Amino acid sequence: DVKVTQSSRYLVKRTGEKVFLECVQDMDHENMFWYRQDPGLGLRLIYFSYDVKMKEKGDIPEGYSVSREKKERFSLILESASTNQTSMYLCASTFGGAVGTEAFFGQGTRLTVV
Amino acid sequence: GENVEQHPSTLSVQEGDSAVIKCTYSDSASNYFPWYKQELGKRPQLIIDIRSNVGEKKDQRIAVTLNKTAKHFSLHITETQPEDSAVYFCAAREAGGFKTIFGAGTRLFVKA
Predict the structure, then answer these.
(1) DSSP-derived 3-state class of residue A33
(2) How many other C-beta atoms lie within 10 A of the C-beta of residue A44?
(3) Per-range mean pLDDT, top range of A37-41, A81-85, A101-105
(4) Is B32 within 8 Å of A48 when comparing Cβ atoms?
(5) For chain B: N or C, fewer Cβ within 10 A?
(6) Is A30 left (phi over 0), alpha (psi -120 to 50) or beta?
(7) What region does A7 belong to: left with phi over 0, alpha with psi -120 to 50, or beta?
């Protein structure tokens, strides 16, 4: 059974805190992604990585950064959490290559910033 | 960049009826179109996908059609069952890139 695991299911943080969301996959996938999910807005891409130490901005990168030091791990960092970053965060991974393939998602982290 | 629009946002059908969800995309070079189902409190999971060299694909009660000229693709669920109730997302993957852009989702209710 394929596994994408996010470190926390629920998090509550204070405004201004630095927040780390961790994602680990055991499928040796090249590509990893961070999305946020908000009602009526679908899944919006924050950042993605196609290789170790490589990162690319998605559609809504402001206020976020990422780190990929190992192939299996992709971290999302909220430099200074704000209330408008309260959301569900989903990590995903796919095989590499030019042809699109299935994305496997983590279980999600519901972050509340107070 | 790619933009994906999805309609309707909410769909309610009677058990046994068919359900159709439609999506349009903006980048004519996109070449991979997956559909994901997300049940309440669970992660999205792939239910069917189609590539740009195919016009239609079926898997039991689920089918997807792709019209490249019009840049739209649709999900068809026949003989709906209560367990089909979920949020469905369409997506398009940019050709030559890594980004998969999702639609806003359709919440499907199947009434028993």
Answers:
(1) strand
(2) 17
(3) A81-85
(4) no
(5) C
(6) alpha
(7) alpha
